[in-house]
Design brief:
Length: 80
């Protein structure tokens, strides 16, 4: 039988791209961490359905409610 292959999940796709680009494993883990946090913050909404507004909401949440450092916010911002 020739079954259609299921498309890979978003975070698996992210990992694949980072590996093709030869990013360090630690960088991959960090990117996946922030993407997962972003998705969970927005009630598991898929990032393709979100935009600048949701990114700003997440970064504001990190700054105001989580008191994260500016460098951490910049790290999260690079993923947007």
């Amino acid at each position: 039988m020739n079954e259609k292959a299921k498309p890979k999940k978003l975070l698996d796709q992210v990992r694949d791209v980072l590996r093709v680009k030869h990013y360090a494993y630690r960088t991959e883990k960090t990117y996946v961490f922030w993407i997962r946090r972003f998705i969970l913050f927005h009630g598991k909404k898929h990032p393709v359905d979100m935009g600048t507004k949701q990114i700003q909401e997440f970064l504001t949440h990190l700054a105001v409610e989580r008191n994260v450092a500016a460098s951490t916010q910049n790290q999260a911002r690079r993923l947007g």
